[in-house]
Amino acid sequence: MASPRTGFNPWSDASLQASCSTVTSHYGQGPRTLADLQTSLYRLITAPGGVEEALANESALHNCALEAIIAGNKGLSVHDRIGIYANAYFYRLLDVFKEDFSCIYNVLGDTDFHNLITGYLIEYPSTEPSLLYAGRRLADYLKTGRQAGKPVLQFPFLADLARLERVSAEAFHGADAGVLDEASLRSLAPEAWPALRMRLHPAAHILDIEWRVDTLMTAIKEGRQWEPPERSPVAILVWRHEWRVRYRVLEPGERAALKAAACSTDFASICGALAIELESVAGVTDLAPIINRLFTDWLRDGILTSASADVHGAEPA
User: Per the domain annotation, does 147 fall within a domain?
Assistant: First the structure.
């Protein structure tokens, strides 16, 4: 008996290429190259509507015997065999979604989460080689209500929760850059501060939400009983510090200041944006202590970089 490592492999390049030749010689059409065959099988396995629907649309396989490529037997038909791969593909994606959107999974439970992701993948099938991008449109899907009539509608905060979980993943995988720190800034002359250019760290994000899903997410992460979140619009800062993702609600003035920093600007402009929002929202006039405290917090959290700092790695879209 041949060793499993050295025996016949029906998915090897040589075997698949031979299958292509068999189909071409017997039927005069169908996949003519290994790349064609691999592409056709990929489409069958990953088709959102299932194998049967995909096969009906596969012009390269529709009029030729699929049996010439994949062998069936009394126990499993050719379509059943393709279906095994298709089901494995879907459940691998489902496992990824359970990990990336663990809080939504906790809220919905197994069955409703399964149905949600099934509908989502039909609407937004995965198109990237990396599974990191598979869930980037889940919040949009929840927001548009295309899953109307299903149990998720009883949780109107799910779109915001999906956004927070997605942005948390982006913060973890985001690009890196050297951060500003107090020690390096102490030697800076006072007159040089207004023109000091800086920007928000590439792995930091500002998220405007309608529901306080941050409190819900904290409860779930800490293993506590969660309650439906309050409907209270806030801005949340999500960032990575020492390879841990953190998030908190921004104070009055912070959103405008950090939005300015996100566009790469000077310290004077950041202070100006902070002052305008504080004066309009909170009526604050004594700005120096607040600016000093917030800037110290930003440096401690590592969310500011020099405008000229090198960025390392690719940030998820």
Answer: no
